[in-house]
Amino acid sequence: MVDIAYLEFLENILTENRKERFLNVLKNRTRHFTVAVEDVFQMHNTSAVMRSCEVFGIQELNVIEQRFGKRIDKEIAMGAQKWVNLQYHSSANTCIDVLKEKGYQIIATSPHNDSCLLEDFDISKKTAFVFGVEAEGVSEYTKEHADGFLKIPMVGFTESLNISVAAVIILQEVTTKMRNSSISWQLSDDEKNSLYYEWVKKTIKNVHKIEEHYHQKLE
């Protein structure tokens, strides 16, 4: 819940440029698409995917971690961890259940012959794109419970791309189409206000001490 009075107090600490930047970025944030990465071994790959989510306005990244632990390389993420909501899931079935409850169709990225080509993908539905572990791809459970499959056209001898590269290509394509469409893809006003409040607090140094001092003055 947003404490309006406290938010207004904190806004006095920020520059006008910073506040304007937050508002402009929020205009392009979306939950129409989300991303899930499944048991990615190389921590820099998950971090790079998070960075791509932030760049293309994807507000939430889901991380399925059953084998390799929860690791984000902050140097690779380049601060994206401050602006993207990271959701951890202990298993693929838990993650898929949660995403489907939120209204997402599950699209597994796979080079299989029956996969939809990226250029033909229908962006009108809320979609969670699932990327699998290096070399192995998405799990059998994810394949069995996916609503569809998506592949990037490739004409060389190599049949797959690094997960972080694949994420960049897919997210750039689908978010560009999304923003040029008439579908309702932006965050609600309540979501924007909540994120704005969260971002303001994250960007101010020693905000916890400031908050403590602020509430002491009110007592």
- CATH fold field value: Alpha/beta knot
Order of helices and strands: HHEHEHEHEEEHEHHH
| Helicity level | 40-55%
Distance between the termini: 20 Å
CATH class: Alpha Beta
Write out the CATH superfamily name.
Answer: SPOUT methyltransferase, trefoil knot domain
Number of strands: 7
Report the β-strand fraction as a percent range: 5-15%
* Principal-axis shape: elongated
| Global mean pLDDT | 88
The main sheet comes to:
7 strands, parallel
Provide the CATH architecture.
3-Layer(aba) Sandwich
How many domains? The number is 1
CA-based gyration radius: 19 Å
Question: How many individual helices?
Answer: 9
- Give start-end ranges of low-pLDDT stretches: 73-78
Feature tags:
219 residues, alpha/beta, 9 helices, seven-stranded parallel beta sheet, single chain, 7 strands, 44% helix, elongated, Alpha/beta knot
Q: Can you give me a brief rundown of this structure?
A:
The protein has 219 residues and is α/β, with parallel strands linked by helices.
Layout of secondary structure:
Blueprint: H1 4-11, H2 16-27, E1 33-38, H3 43-55, E2 60-64, H4 74-77, E3 85-89, H5 92-101, E4 105-109, E5 116-117, E6 127-131, H6 140-145, E7 148-151, H7 163-179, H8 189-203, H9 207-218
Parallel strand pairs: 1-2, 1-6, 2-3, 4-6, 4-7, 5-7
Helix pairs in contact: 2-8, 3-7
